[in-house]
TrEMBL record:
Organism classification: Bacteria, Pseudomonadati, Thermodesulfobacteriota, Desulfovibrionia, Desulfovibrionales
Key words, A-Z: Iron, Iron-sulfur, Metal-binding, Oxidoreductase
Protein name in UniProt: 4Fe-4S dicluster domain-containing protein
InterPro entries: 4Fe4S_Fe-S-bd, 4Fe4S_Fe_S_CS, Nitroreductase, Nitroreductase-like
Domain of life where this protein originates: Bacteria
A GO molecular function held by the record: oxidoreductase activity
Family: Belongs to the nitroreductase family.
Keyword Iron annotated: yes
Domain 4Fe-4S ferredoxin-type as annotated: residue spans: 2-31, 33-62
Protein's organism: Solidesulfovibrio aerotolerans
Length: 260
């Protein structure tokens, strides 16, 4: 198969595929159809295939069978805004397991998050086992106890209170290659996708910042996570069903804003 193939009976020469190509590997021919002028710079984003309303273009690096139909319209802005404003960081969870199938759905959504240059290098370590989450919390607590940071949380841990992973029944950790130039941003965006997908399914989440920090310095924690060699943890989410519902949305500080 060529880099791109165009069905001349379907192509209308509207130039949409050329317009949306972010890398400049496509140009229009004299009929307005696409021509691959520099395949080496293509990052396989799939924009050219996804934008064509005529299903006229196939791409050797974009699996046609995996192209999903998009929504014809987006949800109402008021609904989306209310969801974004109403999301809370959940630190109290029901004693109810999170099904592995639900976690798999969240990963499937999160993999559609944008990454720098479409590298798609974000990896995941996920557990639906509360005992494993407790083990990871203990290793996180041990790290902070050893270096004297967060003494209040250490004292609470000693009293049987988990302020590190909050007794969450499930946990998702994201990682990237240590030399990924935008790895932290890529993981943060992917985790945000996951968080919003989780909220839409009735789950609560809280960012696992303490575990993320500990994983950068604690070899036992990285080993317990099974972190692949050469990778670095850049974020995590506690996941579970909230014990409480928040009927109100508290205020936030005014935006620090400068118009240019």
């Amino acid at each position: 198969m060529d880099f791109i193939e165009v069905d001349a009976t379907r192509c209308k020469g509207d130039g949409l595929c050329v317009l949306v190509c972010p890398s400049g590997c496509l140009e229009a021919d004299d009929r307005g159809g696409p021509v691959a002028v520099d395949p080496a710079v293509c990052n396989a984003c799939g924009h050219c295939v996804a934008v064509c309303p005529h299903d006229a273009l196939t791409h050797s690096r974009v699996a046609a069978a995996e192209v999903r139909e998009n929504l014809p319209t987006w949800p109402d802005a008021a609904v989306v805004d209310a969801m974004l404003r109403g999301r809370r960081s959940i630190r109290a969870y029901k004693d109810k397991p999170v099904a592995r199938a639900v976690l798999a759905e969240l990963i499937d959504v999160a993999r559609y998050a944008p990454t720098a240059s479409n590298v798609q290098e974000v990896g995941w370590i996920v557990t639906d086992d509360p005992a494993k989450v407790r083990e990871l919390a203990a290793l996180t607590a041990a790290f902070f106890a050893a270096n004297g940071a967060r003494p209040k949380y250490t004292a609470m841990w000693d009293r049987g209170l988990d302020y590190f992973l909050r007794g969450a029944p499930a946990l998702a950790v994201s990682y990237v290659p240590a030399d990924a130039p935008f790895g932290a941003a890529d993981c943060g965006i992917a985790l945000t996708f996951m968080e919003l997908a989780a909220v839409a399914r009735g789950l609560g989440t809280c960012w696992a910042g303490l575990l993320t920090h500990a994983a950068k310095h604690s070899a036992p924690l990285r080993e317990a996570l099974g972190l692949p060699q050469g990778m670095v943890v850049e974020g995590g989410l506690m996941l579970g069903y909230p014990k409480v519902r928040y009927p109100g949305v508290p205020p936030r500080n005014p935006a620090r804003l400068a118009w240019l």
